[in-house]
Amino acid sequence: MSIESVKRWFWIKRTVNKVRKRPKQPPEKLAAVIKDHKIDLVLDVGANVGQTGEMLREIGYKGRIVSFEPLPSAHAELTAKAATDALWTVAPRVAIGDSVGTATIYESEASDVSSLLPANEDMYKAFRKTNVVGEAETPVATLDSLYDDYAKPGDRVYLKIDTQGFEKKVLIGASETLKKVTGLQVELSLLPLYDGETTYLELLQMIHALDFQPYILTETTFSADLRRQLQIDAIFFRD
């Protein structure tokens, strides 16, 4: 076997037997569009343990960040991580949806795939760490009900939504907020991964109807077991 064949075999073994999850947004692209649109407030819905906040600081964003996260363990880690950043606020533990109330969040072995929706068979096939290791009751609020607690008139707002199948409900509960948003980032599933999830086409139609234009599309999750792309991140701005 040639050296090149050996290298290729190891590459296949390393990548094809795993789900590839969430590479960073191309930093020069995201940094440029955030700067061009003069964003000064990022609403991070589904913050998990603060990956988006960290990435924003890495690419040079110096404005305010407000993070929302419902999972108790992730919220605690997120709060600790943001504590040293005066412009990074973590809201009290809450899930963002289309109504105000309470719900159960299913905590997966990998906390970033935890969801208010049960994972379906394809998700379990694609990502073994979907296995549920606990459940927690969480408050639920709409973004519209919380917006004025964190935003000021004149803010240039970038809204990031990564809620593992709950994206449509977040958008429905943000009908007034979305009128004030300049940039929007949404994780889109190319096939349903959670029971009741709305996939990419309907969400794209909703976002298009709000006059957002696509700026960046980025691969996030590919499943070698299913031999297909599962999700992408889509970034939109109003021109």
From TrEMBL:
Molecular-function GO term, any one: O-methyltransferase activity
GO BP field: methylation
Domain of life: Bacteria
Pfam families: Methyltransf_21
Alphabetically ordered keywords of this record: Methyltransferase, Transferase
Key word S-adenosyl-L-methionine present: no
Keyword Methyltransferase on entry: yes
Signal sequence bounds: none
All residue ranges annotated as the Methyltransferase FkbM domain in the record: 44-213
InterPro entries, per database record: FkbM_Methyltransferase, FkbM_mtfrase, SAM-dependent_MTases_sf
Protein name (record): FkbM family methyltransferase
Organism annotation: Hwanghaeella grinnelliae
